[in-house]
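[agent] plan:
  1. take the single chain provided in the ticket
  2. run structure prediction with default settings
  3. attach structure tokens to the ticket
  4. add a short note for the reviewer (M.T.)
[agent] executing step 1
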Amino acid sequence: MRFLLRLHNHYLSKDKLFARRLRNLLGFTPANMAIFKLAFSHKSSNADKTGTVQNNERLEYLGDAVLGTIVAEYLFKKYPNSDEGFLTKMRSKIVKRQSLNKIGDKMGLDVLLAEYNTTRLSRSMLGNAVEALVGAIYLERGYEQTLRFVVRKMLRNYVNIHDLERFDDNYKSQLLEWCQKNGQTISYKLLARYKFEKRDRFKVAVMIDGEKVATADDFNKKSAEQMASVRAMVTLGIVDEEDLETEE
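[agent] step 2 finished; step 3 output follows
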């Protein structure tokens, strides 16, 4: 039955162009097109006739859990002699928002997001869509096929594991270490909490010896602190901006 549905979606469905795009992206034509449409529907754009929001948040939640498990298993097998601390840091580097945004961009998910949303696209929507897509694949194909997709289509194509091994992305820790070496105090101050695209957004400042050195905004307070730390490091001349892989 699912085979017939896939054939129908690929050749006869009114969504056949979308189905063919998905086949190029995923390597298969889905039987359940609805969940893949939902994967690219952001909450700021879509509501049904009853006012109920139809968006990818639930799929994002599911995909986040599945992706974390798959990446953990992948790293566990790839690094048989590494301890829990190393594996945890590597998993965090792969599944953090910035990394998923970059993966979504390289996968060309912006094109599909633009088609199913009326709001202005943001970088964070790419990472959300990656997680939602993983959730949709899991519902469509199960864990083993989702694992195969994540490892073969995402990790091997768009993640340089060896570069991540050497890359220290904890800018707060780096800045704290620099301040301690130079006898300076550091703190973070929440400047504002406001709504943007119906979500809470945080503006924070890095304070060094009581002086505001840099600020940043993000949907996650910890992410905003990391971004502000990067900007402070550039301002203080600790690192060159061109050497950092940061995002606005």
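[agent] step 4 note for reviewer: Strands lie at 186-196, 199-208, 211-218.
[agent] ticket updated
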